[in-house]
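Title: Prediction job returns without error message
Component: structure pipeline
Severity: low
Priority: P3
Assignee: unassigned

Description:
Job completed but the reporter wants confirmation the result is attached to the right record. Sequence as submitted:
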Amino acid sequence: MKHIGQYIGYGFAVVMIMIMILSVPVIAEEPYVLSVQQLKAGLDRASDPSQKGFILVDVRTPEEHANGYIPGTDLNIDYRELKERTTELGARRDDHIVLYCQSGHRSTIASNILADLGYQFVYNVASSMNAWEAAGYPLSFPRH
């Protein structure tokens, strides 16, 4: 009986180790970084904004968004609300999601949030609106 108890104890330990390994959350890869030139090229390739192949999200405040945003932007979700509002993205975990803010700081935070939630293709626009405007690219404004 002593030998059987040892095997049962060993088997139990192996099962517990496997459960611990498998229950550790998987952390996604680091988000990708895009330049505004790469973003503009991606937007220009699409014959229609709805055919661009990615979801473009402004993570600035609604007030900032109202002062001008990148044409082709699909949503404005404040980065502080992103985790609670991910369903609004309408995205699968393997969809491409591009995030921008004013300087790139908040969109970096937001892209890490989405990556940590398991979204596989998350892109942060480097220097975001500051770089977009410095490049002389056009802005869109909300219709009133």
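Comment from assignee: result matches the submitted record. Residues 32-134 form a domain with the Oxidized Rhodanese; domain 1 fold (CATH 3.40.250.10).
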